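To the team - protoporphyrin IX containing FE complex, inputs and output below.
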Amino acid sequence: MAVTGAILVLFLVGHMAGNLKSFFGAETFNAYAEFLRTMGEPILPRRVLLTVVEVVLVAAVVLHMWSAISLARRAGKARPVKYAAKRKSQAGGYATHIMRWGGVTIVLFVVWHLLDLTFGVVNPAGWDGTPYERLAQGFDPSRWWVTLFYVVAVVMVGLHLRHGLWSAFQTLGLASSRSYRPLKAAAAVVSAVLVLGFLAVPVAVMIGVIK
Ligand code: HEM
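Output:
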């Protein structure tokens, strides 16, 4: 869980930082998108390194989900008789729901997101548009519902990340009675920075700062 989670967190940090380039205008953002396709050249042909990154990302998502399912099964087998107490435990309440349903929502969001901003299938600028055009037209105020969907999904990503980071800290044995609060705060701050960084772009397009 931790290794695949770390790969996905690194991707999110890089992706958020890259998205913020849209504040510097169409040329800068499109040049960055072009760089993603040409990185590795001339040693590697166009798009090869990007495809490697994409394969690693897909593998990380699949293995992350597989680990989650097998860990849940192992936990179930270790405790075949349910606890008599009705009180929801950490493993049966908010955190489990947010991780399971949040995770599924994020996967569905990524499918929509790729159809929207990568392939242009559900985007007004379409496949022929530049990455910047897809961004600017995709979050047009008339398509407020798209932005709303992004806001919900990105908040889900933030909640997923906050709990995931906290779990990883515990797994690594970092959480003690003294470090409990600072580590929880660190997980919340990292997640909040990512959420705000991701939401800045759709919101900026909505209010006309990016056009
Ligand atoms: C809400 C703000 C977001 C914006 C504005 C945004 C923007 C973009 C854009 C413009 C692309 C296409 C890049 C290109 O064609 O070169 C892209 C690709 C992608 N985005 Fe996002 N994104 C956002 C959030 C997310 C989140 C939260 C995730 C994951 C949970 C995500 C996952 C991806 C993936 C997997 C790709 C495909 C990368 C590839 O081609 O290899 N995005 N995004």
